[in-house]
Fold this sequence. Notes:
- This protein is α+β, with helices and mostly antiparallel strands.
- The protein has one domain.
- It has helices spanning 3-6, 28-36, 70-75, and strands spanning 16-20, 41-45.
- It has a two-stranded parallel ribbon.
- It is globular, with a radius of gyration of 15 Å.
- The model has no long low-confidence stretch (mean pLDDT 81).
Amino acid sequence: MRAKRLEKFDRHSSHSIIIDEAHHCLSESYQRVLKYFDSANVLGVTATPDRGDMRNLGSFSRAWPMNTRCRRLSRVGISARSRL
């Protein structure tokens, strides 16, 4: 997101940011947004934590990565069961 567009938002208006496909969060554009909303809590989720450029997502996250299976998530009621 461009700086001019970011400046249209109150930097304290977002308390939480959820990033799907969080393996992209190390890119310059994502980092610009995250730095702008630096007081927001961030939850990043991804099914592909290994990046092609070998950059470590641990440098983005202060939390330990969690690895789980879809079957377990549906069993405990976090996600819907999938049907093929």
